[in-house]
Every structure is written in C-alpha cells, then in structure tokens.
Amino acid sequence: MGQSTHRNGYAKLKCDATAHAVIMLSPAPAMIRHAGVGDEECGVREASHSAAAFFSKTAEMCASVSKPENFPMTTTSPSPSHQIGMAQRWSLLALLVSSMACASAATVPSNFSDSVYASGLSNPTAMAWSPDGRLFVCTQGGSLRVIKNGTLLATPFVRVTVDGNGERGLLGVAFDPNFSSNRLVYVQYTATSPATRSRISRFTADSGNPDVSSGGEQVLFDYDNLSSATNHNGGALHFGPDGKLYSAHGENANGAHAQTLNNLLGKILRLNSDGTIPSDNPFFNQATGNNRAIYALGLRNPFTFAFQPGTGRLYINDVGQGSWEEINDGAAGRNYGWPNVEGNGSFSPAIGTYSNPVRSYPTSHGCAITGGTFVSVRRSFCRLSPGAAQKTMTTIAGHGRDHSRCRAKATGRLTS
C-alpha cells in the first residue's frame, strides 16, 4: 500500500474503467509512493490490491485560513523506465490540488512525474467516474463539475444550495448502478432548509445533453439536524455490490452520537436507491424511524470509504483525534468503538465489544487517513531456472493467463 504525506488537506481517490487510480488532494500536493505486490511462486492469481492510500490532515486545523480558487489538477505517473510491461499499461494518476496557506507542499519522489490534468476548480471535495468515462467533481460551494475528455466544462452538472462553512458543503457523488438507462446521479451535501442538515438527493442527466441535469431535485433522505459545530460531516457516498446506497457521516464533533442508535451521526447508512430503508439492515428491528438505516456505528469522521473490486469488501477510513487513524473493515452491525476507544485495543465486556481496524497508525505522523482506492490486476508469476531472478508479468484483469508472455531474461527485467 503506497502512501503520501502532507499537512492540513484531504484526499479523495477513485479508479476509472481502465484501472487508472485518480487521486484528488485538496488542499496541498502530496508525496506519492506506490508499493508493489510481493513475489510468489509461478502461477496466476487475481489480485485486487490498494494502488495507493493517501493520508493528510483534515481542514479542521486550517478552518481559519482562506482557501484560494482555481486549484490546478495534475496527474502523476511512474517514469517509463520503471513501468511494468503489460498488454494494457496502467499508471497511477493523481489530481493534485494546491490550496491553504498552512498546507506544506511535498516533493514527488523519483520514478514519478506530474502533468496538469484539469484546472479551474474551486475547493473540490469529492469525485466519481461516470460509467461513460466522465469525471464528476464536487465543490464545497455546491457545484457538481464535469471533466470531459480532460477538459473542465464551463457549465456545472447541477448546483445545490449548501452551507459551505468549515467541513460542510457538497461532499459526495455516486452514480446509479443502472445509470446507462436511468441517468440518475446521487449527491450528499449540507442543506440549509428547513434546517442545517446533511441531505442525500438525486438528479437526472438530461437525455439530450448528459453533461447537465434536468427535471429538478429529488430529495431522498435527510440526516439529523446539525449543531453549530461545522466539522465531522463525513460525506462519502457509494453504491455497494449489493445495489444498495451507502452513506458516511461524522459525529458532528460530539462523540456520544457515535454510540447510540437514536441518531444517524457517526455512522455508515445503507439505503435503497429510492431512499427507503432495506428491511434486512442490521438494526432494522432494533432502531426506529430513519435510524433503521444504520449499517455500522462507532465512527468519528468517516471522511471516505471504498468497496474492494471483486470481493465487495468495504473499507472505512476514519479520521482520528489525538491517537490513531483507522482503516476499518466495514460489515453489517459492527461498532468501531469511538469515542470509547481509538485504534487497536483489547475490549472488556464493561466497555463493549468493538471491531479493531484492519490498519491503524499514530496521528503523530501528522497525516490523517482521508482516502483509499483499489486497482484490480491479474498477475502471472514465472519461476526461472535455478539462480535466475524471478520475474513477474502484470496485466489488467481479464487479459488471460498466457505464461509465455513472461520472457526469461537473466537481467530479471519485467516484460510483456
């Protein structure tokens, strides 16, 4: 798992249909390092592994610092001499967004280079690839922008009225599993009416011009009213492999919210695509009203989460307070312990039974967990004659098992 380091920003990561990992870092550019998969014996296996995980401090520490407009986006990819030969070459792309004055820039390491992908965005917060290959980018001020063929379109797909203070704003976007036929786009944002609260709505792409919406907003689900604290809003929104809509929300700077089934804060929710609540949710018969949408609890600020391709496994990135950052294994009914515990620990019955994170690291590293994505590849492993170097041929998943493509060379170079 690769990682990056920078301060006082946040990261969002996605993978496009061609297995490119796209990283939007806002506000500061970050150092990116990609770690490969270890060698194994000759054979073929499916490997859906994390292409990169990017850690940064959230905007909490820089709430009073002004944020410039027109963030440049750049792509970062390995230099040609370090790329693995393959039938379809893949590279790591990064949308690097510079911003707050308090954020410190990081140097891109050797073997990587930057190039501008798109520019002109104002305070981007989240992004998602549409099934037809366009990149939709949320901005904190409420505009959902479209990048098409590498160009930021002048007209937003839609604008919603938001409370954009602190960590609020337009924070999540997802596409209906049947988008090609129903053209439905879902968003999560901080609404201002009838009260300040997080809202999930959907819009329909215009049949004549799918780069803009038509027909107005359909409100699907409202969270609980928010307090005057403007942090810990989460905001990530994704469809799971089960076709259900999953939504993340922080505890609105009140840890007690995370340990109760009487509100929706500090939770992961699971909804039907029309905003109704599935009857097989883990707390459906225990909670009441909208609280039956709760899928998992005990979270501080699950700023992002992602489903692993192939396995459908849910990974939740929970921003820590003063001790540990967490990547949690998302599952129905789990409680991740906040605010009673943070990071790994032994849990006594007196406190309750909580789920340990699959990975945690100390906040003293200066970087909060704010993004993660996966790249699915097929790896063929070839064991050479005794004494020769083992070589690996990597191809995009679905490109077959032709071991003859691994050419035995004493130099151990990877070839396709």
Question: What CATH architecture would you give?
Answer: 6 Propeller
Helix content: under 10%
- What's the structural domain tally? 1
Spans with pLDDT under 50 lasting ≥5 residues?
1-11, 15-105, 380-416
Number of helices: 1
SSE pattern:
EEEEEEEEEEEEEHEEEEEEEEEEEEE
Q: What can be said about the biggest beta sheet? A: 5 strands, antiparallel
Task: Describe the protein's architecture and organization.
There is one protein chain. By secondary structure, the chain is mostly beta strands. It has one domain (5-376): Neuraminidase (6 Propeller), CATH 2.120.10. The protein is 1% helix and 40% strand. It contains one helix and 26 strands. The strands form seven sheets. Strands 8, 9, 10, 11 and 12 form a five-stranded antiparallel beta sheet that branches. Strands 1-4-25-26 form a four-stranded mixed beta sheet, with no helix packed on it. A four-stranded antiparallel beta sheet has the order 13-14-15-16, with no helix packed on it. It is globular, with a radius of gyration of 21 Å. The model is unreliable at 1-11, 15-105 and 380-416 (pLDDT under 50).
How are the SSEs ordered, and which strands pair?
Layout lengths: L4 E2 L3 E6 L5 E6 L16 E14 L14 E8 L13 E5 L15 E10 L2 E6 L5 E5 L3 E6 L2 E2 L5 E2 L10 E6 L3 H4 L1 E8 L5 E9 L7 E13 L11 E3 L5 E5 L17 E5 L22 E3 L5 E6 L6 E5 L5 E7 L28 E4 L6 E14 L8 E6 L20
Parallel strand pairs: 1-4, 3-6
Antiparallel strand pairs: 2-3, 4-25, 5-7, 8-9, 9-10, 10-11, 10-12, 13-14, 14-15, 15-16, 17-18, 18-19, 19-20, 21-22, 22-23, 23-24, 25-26
